[in-house]
Amino acid sequence: CGKPPVTGSKELDDYPEIHSCVEKIRKLQSGLSSGKKDRSDSFKDFFTWLTDNNVDISTVEITATGESGYGLKAKEHIKEASLFLTIPRKLMLTVDSAKKSVLGELVKEDKILSAMPNITLALHLLCEKYTPDSFWAPYINILPESYNTPLYFTSDDLHQLKGSPVLGEAVSQYRNIARQYAYFYRLLQKQEPYISKLPICNNFTFDEYRWAVSTVMTRQNQIPTEEGSKVTFGLIPLWDMCNHTNGHYTSDFNVEKNVSECYALRDFEAGEQVYIFYGARSNAEFMIHNGFVYPENEHDRVCIKLGISKTDTLFQTKSDILGQIGILPSRSFFLHKGQFPVDGELLAFLRISTADDALLREQFGGNVTMEMLENLKDEEKPICAENENKVWSFLQTRASLLLKTYPNTVQEDQEELNSGKDLTVPHQMALQLRIGEKQILTSTMEYCSQKCSEGEK
What we know:
Elements: H1 15-28, H2 43-52, E1 60-65, E2 69-74, E3 83-88, E4 93-94, H3 95-99, H4 104-109, H5 111-114, H6 117-129, H7 137-140, H8 155-159, H9 165-187, H10 193-196, H11 206-219, E5 221-224, E6 231-235, E7 243-244, E8 251-254, E9 259-263, E10 273-276, H12 283-290, E11 301-307, H13 315-323, E12 330-336, H14 344-353, H15 357-364, H16 370-374, H17 385-404, H18 410-417, H19 425-456
Parallel strand pairs: 7-10
Antiparallel strand pairs: 1-2, 2-10, 3-9, 4-6, 5-6, 8-9, 11-12
Helix pairs in contact: 6-11, 9-12, 17-19, 18-19
């Protein structure tokens, strides 16, 4: 989580009112959005478009996948580290292409839009969707009609996230998108020539905006700007059909050739689905931004918000020490999946935040070297036994309290997930998310207990 998660009983306070208002708007706009279509009907035209623009599609094809919708399948053996996909910039929908499009003048005039490249890309996508002869029509026609991001969750779906930090993030995301929609809806009513010529003026429904935002959020990738001096966002056709697996980055942008290149993560046999690695993200991030949960996620983690109280008489001293190693006195940390749930930054914070005046004076009252400060992040180099016991006792208690905020146990969640009931996709994702988070909190408690026992020996 990039920002501290919203937690507690207030996170849903204004959601019912906002959701009710949005649903009334959606009902009024029900006949304005584009009709439903089977995206697979457009695959043939999409591949023709790719080949007409010199994209080699000899190694992969689109395939239906149960839980993922669609993905890419190998048409022949693809060797690990071999280049199997090359997409030229001209096929990408980017912030740069938005600025050159019919939307360009609005981007230049509106300060909010010019400061939000991802929203610029979303509106660009919508404009092209409603431009009959759009160059990108073959690509847009194969995009999903809806997504499994929390923007599509019902109130019941959201309540399945109770206890998880994701609940606050999901509500915040919905609230922000509703506010953005209201802002841009009013903006598009203005009688300015550069606005009235936009193809979305008569089709700018909440459903269309939610779809465009979700498309960008789930599929965008960072690429260099055309002049190469900065980084911007873009949608990369075909490449964005690859689903996620554990691994490492194998995609890059070749500036000299002006193309996106994707190399095989491992060997893929003919007929096998081809996966790529999206990045070291938690399942919370995958759910919020990509609309899926990956139970085997090696990089899963739980966000935990900690801070030194400003009423602490040692607040300034502790803040100064932490500041020297780039740690704020109040911020979000992570508990990680795996054998070692605590990283160096969290450990350093806990060691300083639990230290008393005498210990701080003794250890950090004189000449403090960077090596001494960096040692705070090293589990093998405690300040002293008493402080170390405080660290692990505190964290064990905090993890225990966080675990109690969930209404169900891991066992109950697992039983429901495996019950065979006809659960909605959001409900299944919520169960998978909760199970993973609780397992991390439980393993953290066990790890802390072990460290406390070691300290007593």
